[in-house]
Structures are given as structure tokens and as C-alpha cells.
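Here comes a specimen:
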Amino acid sequence: MQDAGEAELIPHQPSGSENNLFAGTMEGQFCVELRGVDPDYPHYKSRGEKFLAVSLTIDKSNSVHEALQRSIEGDPLVDDNAYYCEKYDKKVDSERRQTFA
């Protein structure tokens, strides 16, 4: 038998419906895209990634909107950091970016 103090120490286990409500309300999705920049080796891949929070670097931005814009700019994958494409069986210059879906 538990007394009132012990009952407060037991963590609450959310039900499935509580988890779905939270995820449906607070969850977003990134679309991570990988596309070729060399016209001789065209390729494109994308996948979704769920998130509950977004981290922004604001030190070089004047507003949240500008920080969001900077967060979706593409990152070049070239030289030693080039993407290995199975389609061409070699490393190819690409761009990786993430957008909000």
C-alpha cells in the first residue's frame, strides 16, 4: 500500500493518446535533400526527419526569419567531403540542405 507521498514520486506514464496529441501538436518535419550539382552526374535523394525543437544560430542574423532562412541554405559536399553515389559508383559533388516540410 502506498501513502500519498509515495504516489507523487511515481512518474506519470502518458497514454498512447497523450503521446499522439503532443506529437500532432508540437512535432514538425524536416525534409533533408541531397542533390547533384554536376550536370554530368544528376541525382536526387530526400527523406523526412521528425523534430520537436529547432536550434537556430542567431549571432549572424538580424531576425528569427533571417536565422530560419540561413538554416535552410545548402551545404556543398565537394572534394574529400563529396557524396558517394551508388548510382555512379563514385563520389560526386552535391549539395545537402534541409527544409521544413
Q: What stands out?
A: The CA atoms of residues 61 and 67 lie 5 Å apart. The chain is about 25% helix and 35% strand.
